[in-house]
What does this fold into?
Amino acid sequence: MDVVYPINPLFHGPTLWERVKNRQHLTHRDFFASVMAACALAAARARDGATGDTRRVADRPERTSEIFFAAAADAVSKDLSKARGLGYMRACGLLAITAIQYGQINTMHQYMGMYHTLAALQQFHDERKWPSDITVVELEERRRTFWTMYSLDIYCSVVFDSVMKSQENHSNVRYPSEINDEDLLLGTFDTTNEDNWLRGFNFTTDLYRILEHSIKRVRRTKPVRDDRISITRLLIADNIPEAQVMDSVVSLFYQLPPALKDYSLRQGSDKNESYMGFQAANIQATLQLVRMTLFSTSPTHDVNHKCDVAQHALSVFHDIAPEYLRAISTPLVYHLGGIGSILASVMEGLLCEISYQRVRRLLVSMADLLDGLESGLQPTAGASRNLRKRIDRIDRYMEDQQRLMRSVQPGQPPMQAQTLTSPYRGYTVPPPEGMVNGALPPSDQQAQIMDGMSMEAQYDEFQLPQDLVHDGAWPWPFGFAAPDQQMTMDMGFQR
It folds into this structure.
């Protein structure tokens, strides 16, 4: 529960435990499916280190998660028209998230498709069409599930370049009430409590709504097809610059309560504080996804701007408390893949010595961050090692070129020696909430860099060979190559 719940709060905690205590998961097929799916996700994330080493169970079967996954998948009726109720939709959503955890993206698409089919059959996008006799608890569970799956759909569209099936303008579902599960049972409550961790959940949903429209802007910039007219260019104009959009997003962030803006605090014994910490970390991860998506709406960014965006995102992830990074788990790795793609595009273009050294340091920073994540995340094992190998290959090429230059011009100082003491090594990024368009070094630091190099070393442009930096040379998305596998087993509920 602690692994899944803070970021994917699809259950009402007290009701879940009461139903399990009464063994309803053995008599209600839809509830069984959703419980098994939640167990599959929790077991996968625990195995991948989300709970920390102190809570690992050494004698736990290695494939516990896959056993739960198979049980949940088997409980979902193959005839989806008969799979009525919240339980099956929730199960499919959790199975899709678990598939991402496994690195099995085809399986993720399968269960996302099943969820959207069930949602369409039951008109889940309009709460006026929901059953009239549901309890206040199920009402809140439905709202949490709807917006969790909306966010997941937008996430998949951004990260995996899939087609969005959800649109906020077509949705008539209220946000979840910002109230603790225990208070929800009392029946009288304030639906807007800024000190409640669900405020963070709802703000993250706001960010995904922004992402929905941002990714549409990105896709409108694709080349015009020659077999049709461009309706979007005819009827829709995007006059708001990306920097202004990001400025508005940061302004919304500033309005959050302090606990949801502090993502560096370590997890403590207080449950509500820990939930706030989980939400603060998830907000920051989503903010970086928004920043990178808005960044990609314009093809005109220079090398410095690309490095600024990547450096800012890496700085944020390095500052997030490790336990919260582990809880976000595998989806975070795809965020890093987006950063890597930005840096790879810099490496593929024209470079000077300053820009080369800067992007190299950012790649090393990413490898360091992966070192701390992949010790548990099975699908990403070896990602940092592969990235470091790629950096080493580029370093060897650069050293060979420097030796060649020295042999031709023996009086010139080595390029490597000039840059090893660059003041960029000590440069740190300003706090994320104070940054809108990316961090740039203060002018005095820039001056120090210029003073430490000759004019030729600063501005002479070169381009790395394509076999070192082409798309296939980089380990994005970090070797998620595990084949999609399905397991079968007997159903675990009573007939």
